[in-house]
Specification:
5-stranded parallel β-sheet, elongated, 7 helices, alpha/beta, 5-stranded mixed β-sheet
């Protein structure tokens, strides 16, 4: 067997917020060059059509609250494929460094002498603009809190309690399972009428959107059959009427 002539390398890249055309040009070019792609559940599968003939496309996705590929298995695949085939493209939905565990995989690769490269992606909260929801708006919201809805132990992040006290737009990833709890916290704090929105599959043809007071969001989501993956955005920026004339 011939010795590997290409330096082992892990490239962690963001695939964007669903629409395949939202991938960066840099990541698109690499799709056509690498011999191995490890891709996640939220990666648009049509992107795999751009890989070169013979490219090994391996699914290592994780369904929310369902079947998943253990992180340890992903790490072993990274090591195996990098040393046997050279360049490995780890393609993740959105941006790999925003609740994507991308840096964990980079650290693992470095620990095993594998060169690493990072390519940012358009994260799902940036697709909120497709629905006239600017995350910041002059005189309305001058900052953003980005919070995970589910920590490793399954609990809701305590940072939400701090975020409520600010005037910032609050963006919650992976929070649909905790939506009733989130609404209850806002209600208990006296902010039950705070405008909010849920965006489901933001940039894809089968997207869904609901808007309303945070206290009503669990019921609205149930009526529209909105589940994960979805993004919860809380704050006046979700109500276009409040932005007009400011």
């Amino acid at each position: 067997m011939a010795a590997l002539t290409v330096e082992p390398e892990l490239i962690v890249a963001g695939a964007g917020a669903g629409d395949p055309e939202l991938i960066t040009l840099k990541a698109y070019k690499l799709l056509q060059e690498v011999p191995v792609v490890l891709y996640d559940n939220l990666v648009n599968k049509s992107l795999l059509d751009y890989t070169k003939p013979g490219c090994e496309n391996i699914y290592v996705g994780k369904l929310p609250y369902g079947d998943y590929t253990p992180q340890e298995q992903i790490h072993e695949l990274i090591k195996e494929k990098a040393f046997s085939k050279g360049r490995v493209l780890r393609l993740k939905g959105g941006d790999p460094f925003i609740f994507g565990r991308g840096f964990e995989e980079i650290l693992f690769a470095r620990q095993h002498g594998i060169k690493t490269t990072y390519i940012p992606g358009i994260t799902s909260m940036q697709a909120s603009g497709l629905y006239d929801i600017p995350l910041t708006f002059r005189n309305i919201s001058e900052s953003i809190w980005v919070v995970t809805g589910t920590k490793k132990d399954g609990s809701l992040s305590a940072d939400l309690q701090l975020a409520i006290q600010s005037k910032a737009t609050v963006v919650i990833y992976m929070g649909m399972k905790k939506l009733p709890e989130i609404a209850s916290i806002y209600l208990d704090k006296g902010y039950g009428d705070m405008p909010a929105a849920i965006i489901h599959y933001a940039s894809l043809p089968y997207h869904k959107l609901v808007k309303g007071a945070i206290k009503d969001l669990p019921q609205l989501a149930a009526e529209q059959h909105i589940t994960h993956p979805a993004l919860i955005i809380i704050g006046p920026v979700t109500n276009t009427d409040l932005l007009v004339g400011t």
